[in-house]
Amino acid sequence: MSEDTDLTESEADAFRGKCRAFLEEHATGIPYRGPDPRGDQSLAAARTFQKALAAAGLAGLTYPVEYGGQGLTKAHERIYREEYAKFPDMTFQLTITHGMCLPMLAEYGSPEHKERFLAKNISAEELWCQMFSEPGAGSDVASLQTRAELDGEEWVINGQKVWTTLAHQCDYGIAIARTDPTQPKHAGISMFILDMRAPGVEIRPIHQIDGGTHFNEVFFTDVRIPKDWLIGDLNNGWNLATSMLMYERVAIGSGATSGVSTTYADRLVEEARKLGRTGEPVLRQKLMRLYSEEFAKSLVSMRTRAELQAGKTPGPGGSLGKLHGARISRLMRDLTIEVVGLETDAWVEGDKGEQWGKSILASFQASIAGGTDEIQKNIIGDRVLGLPRDISVDKGVAFNELKVGTQG
Question: Domains along the chain?
Fold first, then answer.
């Protein structure tokens, strides 16, 4: 027997060979033909890859067959992730669709939700986004003011979301909205499925420092959705949102692969080798530090993935990987400038410096997206280490009595 306790050694070897053969043919990297500010090219490549993955019987490995999955074991998923780590990442644009929305629908969605949405989510025929943050509710998401009011057999949604990744590309989204403003701010929130193409949904791009526009503002004006598109129980949205944030931090912090991954360090070592700088002692030490940080993060991610594979819902420990990833991004940013040099600042479209420069600019979001570093530290201190919580002056106060956001 192999370490894959749910499989015999021959079964594990056969499945690993199937994964490797598929990846060798399809995971060839994402070709870019000029700038891709809205993610059109990378997302199209991801969907093509995912469609082929589904056709090969390798998509949604652990999800039930009746919902578009393969009904296989956690051991199969681990093997696939181990092999996938050896190839270019083809599906990073599907992180929210598959790393956050899919597990939430599978865990908390109704049988009707699963029957309607899971298969097309798994195959990437339909894309999903997450809509939590608002202009007055970023780190303090529970201060959200988007409201949902029941009108017969439909919910009517009004409000605004911001920083919604790929909203312009998505078919559906998972959103939280206030359903009872007379309750304390964490209590009167519910979670819904929204049709991103419904009348009353307006999506506006946000222009980013790296030249991209894959974040968006989303406005809801009398948007109507079916009554049964409520996920879970009414006014239990905060607990569901917390679960989804845990999935998000695991998705961001551990990525789509298993095993040890030292991508940033490997790229910079190769660049230093090309420039003939691998003999510089101080630079070698800095590269080794980056390599060590990535190695350690991989080990934490492997532990987090093991908990998921054991059937556990992600806990607050996912914030460790998220916070560690932001730390690595800062190290990578400074070291890239030191290794590559002025090309990271002064580049023209198409030259080597563009790739490095854009990776530096994009790295700043690592400390913000999915919750700021400060929020992660609070979660780790409170829910992992058991330290005293911050004082909450609005505890038990009805939301409509609070002065938050635009609510004066």
Answer: 9-90 (1.10.540.10), 130-237 (2.40.110.10), 259-371 (no CATH)
